Amino acid sequence: MSARALTLDGRRRYTRETVAFVPALRTEVSLRNDDAAPALVDALLGRELRLDPALAAVALAIDGRRDVDDVLAAACTAGLTRPLAVRGLRALLLLNVIEGAGDAVIASLRAFRDGLDLPRGRVLPEMRFECQGSGSCCQTLSLGPLDAADVERLAALDLSKSHPHLVGQSLTELHAHPDGRRAPYLRRVDGRCLLQLDDGRCGVHVHHGAAAKPLTCRLFPLEHVVRYDGVHVYDRGECSRFGASSKAGEPLARTPQRLLPLMAQTRRLDHPIVQLSPSYLADFGYYAPLVQSAVDECAADTLAAPEVLRALARRVAAFTGALDGLPLSPGAAGAALQHVLATPRARFYVPCRPENLVPGARALRAVAEALTVACDRVLEQIPEGHGQSWARDFARRLKPVLHVVRTLLAALLEPQSAPERIIDAGFLSADTPEAHDTLRRSLRQALFGRQALVDDRALPALLRLAFVQLVTVYAARHRDAGEASRASIGGLDEGHQLAVRALSLDPMRQVFIEAAEAAPAALEALPYVLRWR
Ligand code: SF4
After folding, report:
1. Helix (H) / strand (E) containing 425
2. What atom of ligand 1 comes closest to residue 204's alpha carbon?
3. Ligand 1: residues whose CB is within 6 Å?
């Protein structure tokens, strides 16, 4: 039964509010209603969803016998208005807690639980990594946590020749995690790992072999995340030579043994409930295919990273926009998602309308200002010489780059008052093959990994990725200012590391979360600001 009608703007608009079906909670989901805060307990995903009174009234009305209209009527009897009851049932459908909703994703999750289809490792075919020996990671990264085997191996090292000054000293120190747990990390001396040699090389690697290093050092910069469609192994983009290291060496797809230590690590499934927009929470299974479309499009070197990111934001908006009037049925959200995914790509790649440029540039400028304040907060909160002084250093380096970004945005918004040279100097660097290549590979890895979400939120993550692009390019331009009109590859690498690291700090993430509603406008203007279409 079709309940939709097409409208002139191509969006689906629906003529019916419900489609006949009998809602029932999914087999693994039970309603716990034994205290003041009712909750849905999902045994499949091992999570509990606390319900507000409106959602609780709808969930209580679902008994597996009433049809959808009767469920809504029962929720209204319990005090809800009809629109609230409709929204409540739609929310439960989007969370895939109703039988039949998100069937394909639920089938994958069940297979994962049963071990019938243990997720296989997935890497992007072009993915490579080969250390370029800069030694920067041993100075700027968190040096742990170490596992018991790491600590044992380090304790067994004969340091009498390689590091005689460390004989008898502890190589590790305990750091507290936000959850209160304490874990061992390599000790830092003068801001760097105490095992690093003066020339920047790893002393353990040089004198005792690569296998003697802690696992975290051997795996850097690879990370993994367990998803319902497999274990995604990706480059977290923190190498200071990302432009070279991510293109060097054998493809990881051809050397799967390099992935084994990662695969042996935690197999905890990552399948959050995603804040897709200010109005909608949804099971991750509705967001993942949208992200995958962007990952696929990043592979085409005819598409620039800022445009791919904007297209992703537009697809998210198209999907959440379709949800507003979606008829209540288990398959409706999935069908709306398929409709967005099947919409010709060109529709999401049209240039920004001129009237959207100024609001977009204003939104970017407001976020750049808030990030500058967040930099000051980091500089105030982390004293000199603290174990996290690398965070201080990144915040200190980020500030002038944000100043460049703000200046350029001001020039774009008020060109009559901006000196010509500012506009020229600012925009020239971004549109080069090197910048294009770095940003495209960075975005593809970031989306394939964990960076499509910030604290389980989509829009803050897209905004953060927009700033990764801006900071990468303008940090390079800032470093190379006065030398040429093009940013050098070294400058892009430094800019990229600065962007990825600094914009992951908690105060910066908070800025993106608070600015989430500005993300769609900001992303509209991004390609223009970076001088792409
Ligand atoms: S053990 Fe080696 S690779 Fe690891 S942080 Fe120290 S110097 Fe760097």
Report:
1. helix 420-428
2. 2
3. 138, 143, 186, 193, 195-196, 202, 204-205, 213-214, 217
Kindly report the number of other CB atoms within 10 A of residue 334's CB atom.
21
Beta bridge partners of 86: none
Residue 445: name the closest of 248, 120, 222, 284 by CA.
Answer: 222
In whole angstroms, how far apart are CA 296 and each of 245, 250, 335, 377? 22, 21, 21, 38
The pick from 213, 239, 240 for probing ligand 1's pocket by mutation, whose C-beta has the most ligand atoms within 8 angstroms, reads: 213
What is the phi/psi pair of residue 227, to 5°?
A: -120, 165
What are the φ/ψ torsions at residue 201 (nearest 5 degrees)? -75, 165
Specify whether the CB–CB gap between 471 and 495 falls below 8 A.
yes
Span from the CA of 130 to the centroid of ligand 1 (angstroms): 16
- CA-proximal residue: ligand 1, atom 4 (nearest): 217
pTM of the model: 0.89
Q: Show Cβ contacts of residue 529 under 8 Å, excluding neighbours closer than 6 positions.
A: 360, 361, 364, 408, 409, 412, 470
Give bridge partners of residue 176 from the DSSP assignment. 182
How many A from CA of 217 to the centre of ligand 1?
A: 6
The single-letter DSSP state of residue 11 is -
Could you read off the pLDDT of 191-241 as tens digits, one per residue?
Answer: 789 999 988 888 998 899 888 999 888 888 988 899 998 889 999 999 989
Nearest residue to 445 (alpha-carbon basis) of 215, 213, 245: 245
The DSSP output letter for 167 is T
What are the pLDDT digits (tens) for 362-416?
Answer: 999 999 999 999 999 999 887 665 556 778 889 999 999 999 899 888 888 887 6
Of 140, 193, 238, the residue with max ligand 1 atoms within 8 A of its CB, to mutate for a pocket test, comes to 193
Q: Extract the runs of DSSP E, i.e. beta strands, from 315-459.
A: none
Distance (Å, rounded) from C-alpha 348 to C-alpha 368? Answer: 26
All domains of the chain, ordered by start, with CATH?
1-101 (3.90.930), 102-122+220-271 (no CATH), 142-219 (no CATH), 353-529 (no CATH)
Which of 205, 215, 216 gets mutated to test ligand 1 (max ligand atoms within 8 A of its CB)?
205
Which protein residue has the closest C-alpha to ligand 1 atom 8? 138
